[in-house]
Amino acid sequence: MSTMEAELFDAFRSIGVTDDRASADAQALSRSGADMRAATSDIREELLRQKRDIIAVKGDLTLLKWMVGSVVAMTLPILLTLFLR
């Protein structure tokens, strides 16, 4: 029995729960806590993956902005020359 299970067992016993029931409930709560920690870890990993993807998209967007700006800058003088003559 882990420390957390022992503390839960003692808490259940102090409120009058039988030994068998207190032991079973303490083990169940301990398992659910471990499951929550595992789920939290999975969520944290997924958030890190999404953050990396967002950073990559932002970099690509910045490159595209520069590319469009340079095309506009090169096209504008040509258009002005054609329409102002």
Descriptive terms for the model:
85 residues; mainly alpha; 0% strand
Q: In terms of quaternary structure, what is this?
A: single chain
Major sheet details = none
Number of helical regions: 2
Count of folded domains: 1
Helix-strand topology string: HH
Task: Quote the average pLDDT.
Answer: 85
Number of strands: 0
Q: For the terminal residues, how far apart are their CA atoms? A: 91 Å
| Class derived from helix and strand content | mainly alpha
Compose a concise summary of this entry:
The chain has 85 residues and is an all-alpha fold.
Protein topology:
Blueprint lengths: L2 H12 L4 H66 L1
Helix pairs in contact: 1-2
